[in-house]
Each structure stands twice: as C-alpha cells, then as structure tokens.
Design goal:
single chain; alpha/beta; Rossmann fold; 2 domains; 17 helices
C-alpha cells in the first residue's frame, strides 16, 4: 500500500501516475470524515470478455480486460473503530464519454462516507481511469483520449452492448466481494480487504448511476425481478421474487437518466443529432434478435442470462417494448420495482427530458369505489428546479442544490420501498396538512406568489409538533423540487 498527498479534497489529479498503476491499494485522500482509497480490480477468467471487434490501432478487447482501480470512499468513523464494519454501500456507475470527470463522484462519495455509508465508483470501460491516455500507451499519436462513442462509430457499434455486459460482470463480482461471497484475487489480498471493511452478507448494497450509467444501473436492477407467468399475481410468488431482489440490491437511484437513447438531445455533448441517431440505428439493427447475432465471442455468462440482459438493454436503450412487457410483472411486481427506484432529474436538463422516465410507468386501471379510472403507475421522481445535465460543474445550478439532493437520497435509502417520494404523494400530504390546519383560505391569499416565500407560521401553529415538522420538510422540498409550493396551493379547492 502507498499513500499520496493531494493538494485539495476533491480536485485531485485525475489519473494515477504511471509508476502507481501496479499498486494494489493507494490511499488517495485522508480527510477528517473519510478516506478515499484506490483498490485494484484484477481481471480474472470470470470477469474477462471478448467481443467481435474491428481492430484499429489498439485492441478494444485488450482495453476492456485490463486491470483498473476502483475508487472507494470509506467512512472514518467506522473503519477507524475496532470491531465496526460498513453495513451500507452505494456502488456508483459513471455516465457516457466521461474521460476525466471525477469531481461529481468525489462529492457524492464524500457525502455518503460522512454519513457512515461506504461508496465505490465502478468506472465503465474506456471511461475515467480506464481511458487510454496519450502519455501512457499512445503518447506519440494525437488520437487519444477519444470518446467511447467515437470509437464505437469506427465499425465497433457493438461496443455499446459489450460495455453493458462487461459492467454487469464487474458489478456482479464487486457485489459478491462486498457481501463476502467471492474473495478471490491473484494475490489473495481481496479477502482481507473486503473482510476488514465490510459486513459480509449483512451489507446493504444500493446502485446509483448518472446519465447513461443510470440506464445501466436500472437495467441490472430490473433484471433481478422475475416476470410473472401469464396472469399469475399471487402474494407468495411476488414475495419470493422481491425477496430474491432484496438479497442483491437494496434500491436503485439514477441522476439525469432516462430510457430511449433516440430521445437524447446530444448537441450540448458536442455530438450532432444526425451522427448520434445514425450510430444508434447501426447499434440497434444488429441486436434486434439475440439468436441471429451477438457481438460476444467469450462472455462467461449463461445464454439465458445474456438473453435477459439483452431484452432489458433493448427496452431501456431503444424502447423495444416487445422485448420487456412490464405488465407481466403484475401489479405488485411493478410496485416492487418502482417503489425501490428513485429518479433525480434536472428541471432544465437540455439532454434528457424529464418525461422520458414515464415510459417506465405502464398504464393501469385504478379502482375508486365502484368506478374504474384509467391511470398509470407513479415513479419516485425528484425534479430539481433550474438544474441542468452536468451536476459536477461548479457553474451549474447543481452546485448550490446538491447538498439538499444528497439529503433526499439518504432519506430515500432509509425508506426504500415506500411511496413518499412520488410527486402525487407529496402534493397529497401538503394539501392534507393544510386542510387539517384549517388554513386553505390563508394559503390561497398568502402563498401563491412563486417569487416569494410563504410565511407558514400560522400553519405550523395549528398543527401538532410531529405534523408541523412533516409540513416543514415537505415545504422546503417543494422549494427545490417540482411541484413548487404555489402550484400545490393552486390545486386546493377553495372552501
């Protein structure tokens, strides 16, 4: 193990020095509340994979199967205390074309660790510290680093699905190691590392993905649920497959992510819409039928599992609804997935529209007494007012709002499976508390200006302490997330 000093907390040099690449563990930053530590992920026969590539100036398969360093954020309050181990972990998956964008994950990792939750960044193939750097392999050329999407466009369109499978394999292995299932390593050092820091089988693991990494996380999360056969929707079956899912991932959180890549506006990413849709067309065309074509030569995954992963990949990436019929999960199954999933969206995101997530909420018939009403399942979605697509940029609206978002992520993880974060539930709760306080006319007169805070002291005085605290919680949430408080007030019928 080596230790290096960094000149600031989360603005450290992005890439490891060349002489450090062979080190198994590197203490990257030792702060007051957490330790940021690099741990080598050693590729084994179980994690390696080959896909049918067009060889250019360097083998993509060679890059996919190189060892790399995971980025751990460990709470000092736990790892520095004898007998204590981390029992909650968040595995973060980065977005598309991120070659040097650690800042956002360092902010999240520090926050989790400061709240006694371990975090680890699993970099996806060809991104972050897994991207080839000019000063390492190809310093004599001027071609690298290159965006993975550009490299996929070089007749290697199947790199999309190859990366999806590769991250799945690495995530599966990492999760097993954290939970104490798999501690194999070339130097037999993984056993001590994971045993010393994590609570084995009792460790609660959640997924968090940003942008395209969010689609990956959601796809892996959803494959843990088993569709019901036919019209089967009995409690025992549902309980069993939700129980099986719970043994793997506690909940799933995505940030600025949404299904159907054709709807992504790539202008702000420096990619023309024409080029993007042309690339996706070639990617999708070759993967319509997994039995006729697969880009993988050696996957190390069973054919049935590949078929399942491919179906969710086609469903989330290309909106192939014929691949995954969400209705087959049954009412309780759909609720089981959506209640354990939180989507965080920037209200001013020009790249991923906030309504793209609605594709995940199928229609349903709602029984209201003797009447049936058409409706749809609701998604736990927090829409962050005025925030754009890039939460790691200091110029972004996210910079000031991120602490509140982080707090809401922790609250969701604590109540994962409940419905408190559905916008309709927040609206209903606020309206119910205003009614209980008998202050409908008051808010109609004093709380409809969207540019001015509402003086809610009269409401607080009229409620019991616990409900007054609940009202304040929902009020301040509505100041950051949609729907805003004045919008909620407008929905209250006058007395």
């Amino acid at each position: 193990m080596i230790q290096r000093d960094f000149f600031t907390n989360s603005r450290a040099t992005t890439f490891l020095k060349r002489e450090d690449l062979d080190d198994n563990i590197i203490i990257d930053f030792d702060g007051r509340t957490y330790i940021r530590m690099m741990k080598k992920f050693k590729q084994t026969s179980e994690s390696k994979m080959e896909f049918k590539e067009k060889i250019t100036d360097i083998s993509l398969n060679e890059e996919l199967n190189k060892d790399f360093h995971l980025r751990f954020y460990l709470p000092k309050n736990i790892v520095g205390t004898i007998g204590k181990k981390i029992d909650k972990v968040v595995i973060m998956i980065n977005g598309m074309n991120e070659l040097d964008h650690f800042h956002f994950y360092d902010i999240l990792g520090e926050y989790f660790a400061s709240n006694d939750i371990g975090a680890v960044l699993l970099p996806t193939p060809l991104n972050l510290n897994r991207a080839i750097q000019k000063d390492v392999e190809l310093k004599k050329t001027n071609k690298y680093p290159r965006w993975p999407t550009d490299r996929a466009a070089d007749d290697n369109e199947q790199l999309f699905f190859a990366s999806y499978l590769k991250t799945y394999k690495e995530l599966n292995i990492l999760t097993k190691k954290i939970k104490g299932h798999d501690v194999r390593g070339d130097e037999h050092d993984d056993a001590s590392f994971f045993h010393n820091y994590f609570n084995g089988l009792n460790t609660e693991v959640s997924l968090l993905g940003y942008s395209l990494g969010g689609l990956k996380a959601l796809g892996y999360f959803m494959t843990e649920f088993i569709p019901l056969d036919g019209s089967e929707d009995n409690d025992e079956h549902v309980e069993n497959y939700i129980k099986n899912q719970k043994q793997t991932y506690h909940c799933c959180i995505t940030i600025n992510s949404g299904p159907h890549l054709y709807d992504v506006d790539t202008h702000d990413l420096g990619i023309s819409q024409e080029h993007w849709r042309s690339l996706l067309g070639r990617v999708s065309k070759k993967l319509v039928n997994s039995k006729s074509y697969l880009p993988i030569k050696k996957a190390g995954i069973s054919p049935n599992k590949i078929d399942t992963l491919l179906k969710y990949y086609n469903f989330l990436y290309f909106n192939h609804t014929e691949e995954v019929d969400i209705q087959k999960f049954g009412h309780k199954g759909i609720e089981g997935i959506l209640n354990n999933y939180l989507a965080i969206s920037g209200g001013a995101d020009p790249i991923v529209a906030i309504n793209q997530l609605h594709r995940l909420a199928p229609p349903r018939i709602i029984n209201r007494g003797m009447k049936e009403k058409d409706g749809s399942y609701a998604i736990n979605q927090l829409i962050v007012a005025k925030a754009d697509h890039h939460p790691g940029m200091e110029t972004s609206e996210w910079h000031e709002i991120l602490p509140r978002v982080e707090k809401n992520i922790l609250e969701f993880m604590e109540s994962c499976g409940n419905r408190h974060y559905k916008r309709s539930r927040i609206t209903e709760a606020i309206i119910g508390l205003i009614r209980e306080a008998g202050k409908i006319d008051y808010v109609k007169e004093n709380c409809t200006n969207q540019f001015r805070d509402c003086d809610f002291t009269e409401i607080i005085k009229a409620l019991p302490h616990a409900k007054a605290e609940l009202f304040k919680k929902y009020y301040f949430r509505s100041k950051v997330f949609y729907p805003h408080f004045p919008e909620i007030v407008s929905k209250i019928p006058s007395q």
